[in-house]
Design brief:
With 635 residues, the protein is α+β, with helices and mostly antiparallel strands. Helices cover 16% and strands 34% of the residues. The strands form 8 sheets. Strands 29-30-32-31-33-34-35-36 form an 8-stranded mixed sheet, sandwiched between helices.
């Protein structure tokens, strides 16, 4: 994991046609933001836990069916999910069943990211297993016999996550591994003997360490090497004999290699022309699950290691498979499937006949999926001849005779990636006639380590100009209105949006800055304590505020806000621990001093990302209204 991810009814036909509209465009009804966000989000319980109930009758999931995420038991035989938690304020996410049928969940308060782990008792009450005001804890796995729960916690030291072991009968805890600092615990082996950890060194260099809890209990480096090599942990094999790790030592992309815990022998497991995203196994190890990040899509394989053949399922819809979870006896497997036009739905299959059963329907039934738009992958040439891979959504009916307004969408990170898949935000804008270009500027992940590091200590420079070039590419398309192109993004994408309006003040007609950094000096000095192990890698990429403050000030929109001449919408969560509210407050005040139209939406109950449905609807309505007012030209 990169250390610098700062920062993932009825139809209405009102409005009918965009200016210069056509009959083809008119045939697609316009849906409201509320209709798009009435789509339900589903997530399967955490890997490393028990997703299937002890009786095999349900799958543990999270859902925001009520507007707030809660944990549910989803019947395998079909039927409505049964609520296990009923929070109306803070999001609660499912982690794992326990062998006695109780469940583990986790969540924070108001988006502050200080997560705790809770036991959901049989009577429905929640017991905080990790109490404390300022600590951050997380589910780290369950032993195969269900007798031991592993949890990470920074209660002892805000900058270091220890690994704790809980007895699941008494829930008494003990320190399994005390982190000396600088390490990120990644996984505990099934036998409880080994802890695998990651150590970020620089933005391009990281190492994997092993701790033998039956030995001296000290971290041992297993990925020595010369030069900058990025390594990370995929996981242990079920028999606790092998660790599988990611490394880009042998080319541009992450490959999966194995490390024999007995003799230290290392050898390749999966090699591909794209990054290996993850590797996991069924409980016995018979089935190996792996995925490749293939040009912004997930190519997942479930391999039967007995015959070396991938599993093929009957009745599986098109889309990306994810969140694969096996029942303990490997009789069944649950997983999600998502596509550009369909959110993640939960499916289950019996491995005996491999017939798929759909358990959920996430897309709001008021929305006809055929009205939504499939994405295409495009590439445009930017500064220095660098190709920028992008995900393009083109509205139905867009043509030279009916040119449409457009938005360049910038991902977070800075090392994130815009990938294919369903987005209510994007589909709503496209449904209302806006083309959306999700640009993967230099510095994005997924396209090799050379591309990934092109923006190191150059943020707000060439990567920003890549986004400006994206706007130019859109204008060059005969089906795009060349004077109706905006820019928007969240987190680092929000920064790029604000920077575009500041340093390229006439490159876009308007910009939507969603909790974006505006003052890098303050942001880098106010990193949450629990980022301790990643701080040096972050500074290596972004620059140390102690020595690079002048450059940080130079690329920060706040200090140059007098240049802003185009309309801006700013959206912010008051509880955001990464991009503080003051960042947005100050930029809004500075831009308004220019007599520029500036709109500001502040959510008092959100953090870095909006989890409450009502807030997502409010934000989405603000996006469209702002674009219609300041970007789309009237007839």
């Amino acid at each position: 994991m990169r250390a610098t991810v700062l920062l993932s009814a009825a139809l209405t036909l009102a409005g009918a046609l965009a200016p210069g509209g056509s009959a083809a465009a008119e045939a697609v009804p316009k849906y409201t933001a509320a209709q798009f966000f009435d789509t339900t989000s589903f997530r399967v319980a955490e890997a490393g836990g028990l997703a299937f109930s002890p009786d095999g009758r349900s799958v543990l999931i999270s859902s925001d069916a009520t507007g707030v995420f809660n944990a549910y038991a989803l019947p395998v035989a079909g039927g409505a999910p049964v609520p296990l938690t009923t929070s109306t304020t803070d999001a609660v996410f499912a982690a794992s069943y326990l062998p006695d049928g109780r469940a583990l969940v986790q969540g924070d308060k108001g988006g502050n990211e200080l997560t705790h782990v809770y036991l959901r008792e049989a009577d429905g009450t929640l017991r905080d297993l990790t109490p404390g005001d300022k600590l951050k804890a997380g589910f780290a796995g369950l032993s195969p016999d269900g007798k031991t729960l592993w949890v990470t916690s920074n209660a002892r030291d805000p900058q270091a996550f220890d690994v704790l072991a809980y007895d699941t009968t008494t829930f008494e805890s003990r320190v399994l591994f005390q982190n000396p600092g600088g390490f990120l615990p990644a996984e505990v082996s099934n036998d409880g003997r080994w802890v695998a950890m990651e150590k970020p060194n620089t933005s391009a260099d990281s190492d994997v360490y092993l701790v033998d809890l039956k030995g001296e209990g000290k971290p041992t480096l297993i990925t020595p090497g010369e030069g900058a090599v990025s390594t990370s942990v995929y996981g242990f094999t079920p028999d606790s004999k092998t660790l599988v790790f990611a490394t880009n030592a042998h080319g541009e992309f992450n490959q999966a290699w194995t490390h024999d815990l007995a003799n230290g022998e290392q050898k390749p497991l999966i090699e591909a022309d794209w990054d290996v995203m993850f590797v996991s196994w069924s409980p016995s190890g018979r089935y190996r699950v792996s995925a490749i990040n293939a040009d912004a899509s997930t190519a997942l394989t479930i391999l039967d290691t007995r015959d070396g053949k991938p599993l093929a399922f009957e009745g599986l819809p098109d889309g990306d498979i994810g969140s694969v979870r096996f029942s303990p006896d490997e009789a069944r497997v649950a997983f999600t499937v998502a596509s550009d036009t369909s959110p993640s739905d939960v499916f289950v299959a019996d491995l005996a006949d491999r017939k798929v059963r759909r358990l959920t329907t996430a897309l709001n039934p008021a929305i006809d999926e055929s009205h939504l738009v499939e994405a295409t992958i495009v590439r445009y040439t930017a500064e220095g001849g660098v190709e920028i891979p992008s995900v393009l959504y083109r509205p139905k009916g867009a043509s030279a005779a009916n040119p449409v307004p457009a938005v360049v969408l910038v991902h977070g990170g800075p090392g994130g990636q815009t990938r294919r898949g369903y987005s209510a935000m994007v589909q709503h804008l496209v449904n209302h006639g806006y083309a959306v270009l999700g640009a993967n500027n230099r510095g994005s992940s997924g396209y090799g380590k050379t591309f990934f590091h092109m923006d190191d200590r150059k943020h707000g420079e060439a990567d920003l100009r890549d986004i400006v070039a994206g706007g130019d590419w859109l204008r060059a398309q005969d089906w795009v209105a060349d004077d109706e192109v905006a820019v928007m993004g969240g987190s680092y994408g929000g920064y790029i949006t604000a920077a575009a309006l500041t340093f390229h003040p006439e490159a876009f007609e308007a910009g939507i800055n969603i909790f974006g950094v505006t003052n890098w000096v303050r942001t880098l000095e106010s990193i949450p304590a629990w980022w301790g192990a990643q701080r040096q890698a972050l500074y290596d990429e972004m620059g140390d505020p102690a020595t690079d403050a002048e450059r940080h000030r130079r690329i920060s929109p706040l200090f140059h806000a007098k240049n802003i001449v185009r309309p801006m919408l700013v959206v912010q969560g008051a509880n955001d621990p990464r991009v503080l509210q003051v960042e947005s407050d100050e930029l809004v005040a500075a831009a308004r001093a220019n007599n520029v139209p500036v709109e500001y939406v502040l959510f008092p109950d959100e953090g870095h990302g909006f989890l409450r449905r009502e807030n997502r609807i409010t934000a989405q309505e603000a996006y469209l209204k702002f674009l219609d007012t300041h970007v789309r030209k009237a007839d």
